Amino acid sequence: MRPLTDNPISDFGDDAFRFEPYVDVLHGAVEQAMPLPLTVGVFGSWGTGKSSFLRLWQRRLEDRKVRTIWFNPWKYDRKVEVWAALLHTILAEMEGEEGLKEKALRLAKAATWLSVRTGLGTAASAATGGMIKSGDVDSLLTTLSQGDAEQYRQINRFENDFRDAVREFVGADGRLVVFVDDLDRCTPDSAMTVLESLKLFLGESQCVFVLALDLDVLAAVATNKFGDAFKDAPAEVVSGLAYLDKIVQLPFFLPDVGFDTLREAFTPYVHQPIDDDAFWELLRRGLGANPRRLKRFVNVFNMAMEVSIAQAGGASLDRAFHLQLAVLQMIRSRHRAFFHVLAAEPRSWDTLAGYFRQVQDDPAERPRLLSGLPSELHLFGADRALERLLTQRGSLRVPPPTPQTVRAMITTLRATAGPDGLGSADD
Questions:
Q1: pTM over the 0.70 mark
Q2: Which of 130, 294, 315, 364 is most buried by its number of CB atoms within 10 A?
Q3: pLDDT digit string (tens) for 18-48?
Q4: Which residues form the KAP NTPase domain (predicted)?
Q5: How far is CA 97 from CA 102, 125, 171, in A?
Q6: Any idea which fold 12-253 has?
């Protein structure tokens, strides 16, 4: 059993999601952008491959000798000011450049003073990548409070000095591309400080800032920031689009990865492996084309199959069992209330599937048929997603398992995926 990991890819040879053409289009547009700075937004929902897309683009830039820096803000969230951590990550990279060490250190001191003034205190040292030691923060504060004119000059001219340092770092015609990944994993306040700091401190530099996040998260961030100001605003403002216009000059929406592409990429990893139309149609109907969700499903399914085979004394299990287990796993993750009913009354699978088939044969009979269902199943009689899952026809049909098989599979899933209360609808 070979589990699928959630690590982003960084080599075009591993580009199973076929992002390369889109990377090239975005790269070509950014390559021509002048004047700088430029902020690019790469938008996509949870689990759609934003990190992989950014890593591939970073590889393309490095192949062309363009300077890049990668920043993960969630590592600093709640510990330090995230904007300061971003800034010090850039400065720490410059510090290793011949002739830039002193300038980078002066800028780091100025940035640390700004951090102190915003209430960060001695925690500022954690964001400096070792450039400013913990014991130096208090002494720096004392020095500045005593009127160190040179340091005050650095603070007041920070934006211009940072611009000059970046120019020296990348050359007169170069650019520094800073990738900010997983911004939507931060708290709303931290995400907002990163977005606003790009204009506040780095406004004239030869930088391209690439932000990867979910547009819905951006809307939540903006709503959290402005609160009641959005109460009577038009829908497009509440959606975050108006705020997006203020921060991001070049928005790019990550293309959907087609389900057929995902099937091709993941089939070698599925137990045996399974390349059965019925199995993949179940996954398409139940999970859609979300790479992360499919990876998690495949990993749990593989583990459950291994346990089931061990419980059967090593005997191979038939196609029907594979499909039944896949359906039950999907019920557990996407239809939890029905899963709990099945745990108490395993015959409910056959009962509800029979009801759905009758409704499909004669939709006008739905009210009468619904009244004939056991009371605990009334809630699910109008669930169209559950209906699609339980009523495949022809070669795609999954026969309902026996009550004994349902009980055994539930025990197996609880052993491999954890107690029923763990996780979410996306596990």
A1: yes
A2: 294
A3: 999 999 999 999 999 888 889 999 998 888 8
A4: 22-303
A5: 10, 21, 12
A6: Rossmann fold (3.40.50)
